[in-house]
Amino acid sequence: MRNTYIVGLIAILAVLIASTSHQTRAQSPKGYSVGEAIASFSLKNVDGRMIGPANYQGQKGLIVVFSSNHCPFSKAYEDRVQELNRRYSSQGFPVVAIMPNDPSAYEEDSYEQMKTRASEKNFSYPYLLDESQSVAKAFGASRTPHVYVLKRSGDRFTVEYIGAIDDNPQDASGVQRRYVEEAVNNLLAGRPVAVTTTKAIGCAIKWKNM
């Protein structure tokens, strides 16, 4: 009888440990590594269209920016993200922005507010809602902004850079290193990316309670 009780207790503990481990992984996704191909996705843009990597098969790559409305870091970078799209979309590396936050945490991050922000700021790139947060978790995004530079290889997109846009989120005029620009310029020149990862500086993504 005692042995049966012990075996049952061990089984219950094993289930609890597995459940806790799963929740931790869900809230702290590992995400893609440099050199890894991403899975396809399709998310709703502020104009109602569904957009994903399949829409960019004619491009050389993508600059994927996880961003949000409420975060002051994201707001500080909006003009710089616009400039990245202006400079590189014509060279085959357009920007795609994705809003991953749970809007119940900040009303400013709602889909309606996304549409308003995109209109007011005249975004020249798609601004997609990751309502299920599955894309952010697949990438391993943890901050807004958090940037991934992708290179197209056939019908796949592989990760070539992960991290910050540059080294000065507070002051655009004080930037010394432009990490995303460096990565894209290297790829356009047919060279490997010199700096493949940096630390993303911004607001923590607001995950839904699972």
TrEMBL record:
Tell me where the signal peptide lies: 1-26
At the top level, the lineage of the source is Bacteria
Its recorded name reads Thioredoxin domain-containing protein
Which Gene3D superfamilies does this entry report, sorted A to Z? Glutaredoxin
- Asked if Signal is a keyword of the record, the answer is yes
Question: What keywords sit in the KW lines?
Answer: Signal
Give the species this sequence originates from: Nibrella saemangeumensis
Q: Which residues form the Thioredoxin domain?
A: 32-185
**Which InterPro entries is this protein grouped with?**
AhpC/TSA, PRX-like1, Thioredoxin-like_sf, Thioredoxin_domain
